Please model this.
Amino acid sequence: MGSSLEQGKKGSRTAIINAQKVTITEKDEAHGLITARDFGGTKKWRTCYTSDGTGHSMLYAMDNKAHQDKVEIHERLEAMSLITDEGRCYGAVARNLMTGELVAYISKATTIATGGYGRIYSVSTNAIICQGTGQALALETGIATLGNMEAIQFHPTAIVPVGILTTEGCRGDGGLLLDKDGYRFMPDYEPDKKELASRDVVSRRMTEHIRKGKGVKSRYGDHLWLDITILGRAHIEKNLREVKEICENFLGIDPAVDWIPVRPTQHYSMGGIRTKYTGESQTLKGLYSCGEAACWDLHGFNRLGGNSVSETVVSGMLVAEYISDFCDSYDSSIHIHSSKIEIALKKEKDKLETLLTNKHGEDAYVLRRRMEEIMMDKVGIFRNGKDLQEAVDELEELYKRSKNIEVFRSKSRAANPALVNAYRTQKMLKIALTVALGALLRTESRGAHSREDFPERDDENWLNRTITSWPNEGQTMPSVSYEKIEIDTMELPPGFRGYGKDLTKHHPDTKVRQEKVDAITEKLQAEGANRFEIQHALMPYLEKLPKKYRGTNERLGENV
Ligand SMILES: Cc1cc2nc3c(=O)[nH]c(=O)nc-3n(C[C@H](O)[C@H](O)[C@H](O)COP(=O)(O)OP(=O)(O)OC[C@H]3O[C@@H](n4cnc5c(N)ncnc54)[C@H](O)[C@@H]3O)c2cc1C
Model:
């Protein structure tokens, strides 16, 4: 929320909305509760925050709690593969990154919560560990499936050149996007939401504007400016202090005085391990996934700012409950012969040995760099059939070459970054192929997936989830199928909720369902039902929730 120094105290405060200073008066009953700020693509101020370090606050709270509850944590262990037998997951093989030792974990339930796969792109806001190895573990079982892998979000304001994010809170609080002439261009493209259109829209508009020659030239390519000077030093040092530090440390500028060079950059993976609502894989019993690693259906083909940490909290809470229930049930008992575990360990050991002893092989760094470039240039913000076909062909070639990787520099079996890069690159190439192939086959535009050659959203033919799998180790390309989406059980039938012209080819069932929804709502409202009862009648959800979470949230009111 835009504010001056008096934030934190009761009463009025100033905020910047659409480049104007306005005064906001908080209701007495809301004082002291979690506050919310404006974010892209939303009608209400609904994004809860702690300064511009919401994620860090959550991380530290979680870390403290884990220590407080004496949760056993095994550090520096990287999951390498899943142990499976006859459609059941029995745990994972992990590698100690310091000693190189391989360890087998045998478990009733195994959960993958390894985050997104942004690092298959050359520039990403993601942590460097977000390389998609978690999704690859699932894929490599040949049984578990991935969902909507081509749904990749770009964030408008990562700094140039390194790609570190400046939060959407910059624009939420009133920051502006300017071009090489210092001109505020977003109102021309999006007169209603301006800088606060959803991320995919702003990223595309920025790219369009740069393509028109309005970008600022730099040795790292063209960029635009983010101006938060308008918010004032006091606000920046309080509510955007991480942005200030990033600008000082990585750009050597003061954002209270200088404009920030920004460009759209890979940011979020909507796709992931396909799960049921319980978080369990649809096809591999005992395997669970949650958070950004999963395709749990909170997002679809787009993701609004703030919705991701909500997903980690909500899915973490629910999925953990389902996992506990599963582990307590008779159904979870496991019987696996120790020879099978030894085979799983040996398989990983042999793979590592091959990488270390290969002669005249491929350099993983070269393959990886090329993969990252292909993903950025040909499977990026705007996509088209020609580029995507080239991307798929070249990625397949790189994948074939990756089977013959040789670790050149150090042959150490213990702490060895070159070895780590080698086996991760093999996995990353598989993930890159699922993204590129999914994007090539999806001949429509939907959410963050924008096809220049198919600009319409096509609900008639494409209202489905993309499912990828790798059933046979010898394949050089993932298998792709599609999962139907049931309109008849939706509370909010699919429809155009973007800006500007509606280019959607609507599904015939949408209209039918909308009429049903309207009729049920009208009837229940007349009978005096509250909004939770109406919601449940439209889309029964209570039985799907663990009992202890079936209550309703307390609210002060709609707009407090
Ligand atoms: C810069 C930035 C800002 C963001 N800001 C917001 C925001 O304001 N609001 C919002 O809602 N969302 C935001 N997001 C998105 C959100 O932070 C992430 O989606 C969320 O943190 C994902 O949480 P996670 O627990 O699923 O995965 P992560 O937090 O990515 O954690 C994954 C963990 O898995 C570990 N791991 C990975 N591979 C392996 C392996 N093979 N073996 C063992 N461990 C492994 C990693 O070390 C890591 O600890 C932001 C993201 C970024 C990058």
Notes: The pocket of flavin-adenine dinucleotide is lined by residues 54-55, 78-79, 113-115, 125-126, 129-130, 133-134, 165, 167, 268, 291-293, 305-309, 312 (CB under 6 Å). The domain at 489-549 is CATH 3.10.20.820 (Ubiquitin-like (UB roll)). The first helix runs from residue 54 to 68. DSSP finds 15 helices and 20 strands in the chain.
